[in-house]
Amino acid sequence: MKGLNCEVKKPLKLKIDNRSAINLAKNPIAHGKSKHIETIFHFIREQVTKGMVEVVYCPNETQPVDGFTKVMKIDRFTFLRDKLGLTEC
By percentage, how much of the chain surpasses pLDDT 70? Predict the structure, then answer.
């Protein structure tokens, strides 16, 4: 980000539509059901504990990244495109 001359505001907000994943990231206590979590999730949990990342709930209907990853109707695509601040050519 520094190479792009972008100012990084901390903590970075990670928008997640899964409340269980948010709870696991915020609570460093290991649960029986979470003992086989991938290494990447331990990294995210560590960053949340350090205050570098903040995980926040974002309902599935308003996930802006869906515009890049899913097939959708034009009205939903337009809504998500506008949320990202992109304009029509």
Answer: 81
